[in-house]
TrEMBL record:
InterPro entries: NAD(P)-bd_dom_sf, ODC_Mu_crystall, ODC_N. Signal peptide: none annotated. It comes from Symmachiella dynata. SUPFAM superfamilies: NAD(P)-binding Rossmann-fold domains. GO terms for cellular component: cytoplasm. This is Alanine dehydrogenase.
């Protein structure tokens, strides 16, 4: 007799954190392997499904699946982005859950909190880019935006660039900068973190690495503030003036074909007819595979924009799942005990 039970493991954010899944090195490795697997045709990656509930605020829930054929694992990220949440309700903008399934029988194997994975993915893509595109002696990092992505990006950049010593941060409200300091100082106790009292220029003007991670939709970062040799990781939507990309010696994307159809600054420049495909130096995969050079000297200004590739989220979720399972974390979720018509009491339950 075959068992017809279906089980999967449930992992809360605390289970994942407790198992050591906030590990940027692990995520960078999973991201790099996923990018190479995709390049080699080993990933099924359908278009994402987008449901926008408010055109003005862009409140939305997206469904993003991907399958790794050789690893025989399929996953989906169900992610909501509600930009007014932090200011209006004091709660996070982005929240996600992830389901992983094996593809021998098609059964689910894990149901996981996904905000951690999603934010780690954003940070680790920035870190992977920084490994190849930032000055490896970078000491100063400057942030415009002090929210959830900015915090994860700081951990990620410090992992990729251990030489970082100082962090300047500017946000819309000085209270957000204070919160950033309060939360990040204990984690990165060897870094000096300086709040800039909403002075955006001060946050970035001396920075070897610049990160914008805002919900602004405005040209906050100015080209004149970017020093030679700087690496710029653009995380949000429209948050830098067009002159920034035009000044940079190299522009690298996670996937330019995807980026150019979206609404970030690079897409806006492209759609305005002020940028062509030829202005893009490379996708990150070209640099990972050695098809295009990364940083070639200490004077280059380099612009990186990752729009987010959900197969990378799924790959990082798999790495987190394996680590959490190994650590014995999580709870068993019984999906079904037996098949529908095997239930002895079905006649009492069915409503005809
Ligand atoms: N590229 C990706 O893959 C990816 C993934 C997730 C989120 N994002 C984007 O990253 C951005 C940040 O997300 P988050 O979750 O950190 O949001 P958040 O709401 O936690 O933080 C937003 C930050 O933007 C700052 N900000 C807004 N307007 C500003 C202004 N005029 N001047 C200075 N600072 C300003 C706020 O002060 C705040 O610190 C959003 O645009 C989000 O859509 C990108």
């Amino acid at each position: 007799m075959f068992s017809h039970e279906i089980h999967c493991q449930y992992y809360s954010q605390e289970d994942l954190l407790g198992a050591g899944c906030l590990d940027i090195r692990m995520a960078m490795q999973a991201a790099e392997e996923a990018i190479i697997a995709f390049d080699q045709g080993d990933v099924i990656f359908p278009d994402k499904i987008v449901q926008i509930f408010n055109d003005d605020t862009q409140e939305r829930i997206n469904c993003l699946p991907a399958t790794f054929k050789t690893r025989k694992i399929c996953g989906v990220k169900w992610v909501s982005v509600f930009p007014p949440n932090p200011v209006k309700h004091g709660i996070q903008n982005l929240s996600a859950v992830i389901i992983l399934s094996e593809i021998e029988h098609g059964f689910p194997i894990a149901f996981m909190e996904g905000t951690l994975c999603s934010n780690v993915r954003v940070g680790s893509m920035g870190a992977l880019a920084a490994k190849h595109l930032a000055r490896q002696d970078a000491e100063t990092i400057g942030f415009i935006g002090a929210g959830e992505q900015a915090k994860m990006h700081l951990i990620a950049m410090k992992t990729a660039l251990p030489s970082l010593k100082r962090c300047f941060v500017a946000a819309k409200l000085p209270s957000e900068e204070a919160q950033f300091l309060k939360e990040m100082s204990p984690i990165l106790s060897d870094m000096e973190i300086v709040a800039c009292d909403s002075d955006l220029r001060r946050a970035v003007v001396d920075a070897d690495v610049i990160v914008t991670a805002t919900s602004a939709q405005a040209p906050l970062l100015k080209a004149g503030w970017i020093k030679p040799g700087a690496f710029y990781s653009h995380v949000g939507g429209w948050e830098d003036e067009f002159a920034v990309a035009k000044l940079c010696d190299k522009i690298v994307c996670d996937d330019w074909e995807t980026v150019k159809h979206r609404t970030q600054t690079l897409s806006r420049i492209y759609q305005a007819g002020e940028m062509t495909d030829a202005d893009i130096h490379a996708d990150l995969v070209d640099i990972l595979m050695g098809r295009k050079p990364g940083r070639e000297n200490n004077e280059e200004r380099i612009y990186f924009n990752a729009v987010g590739l959900a197969y990378v989220d799924v790959a990082i979720a798999v790495a987190m799942y394996e680590r959490a399972a190994e650590a014995g974390m999580g709870q068993d979720l019984k999906i079904q005990h037996e098949m529908i018509f095997e239930h002895a009491h079905l006649k009492d339950w069915v409503r005809v």
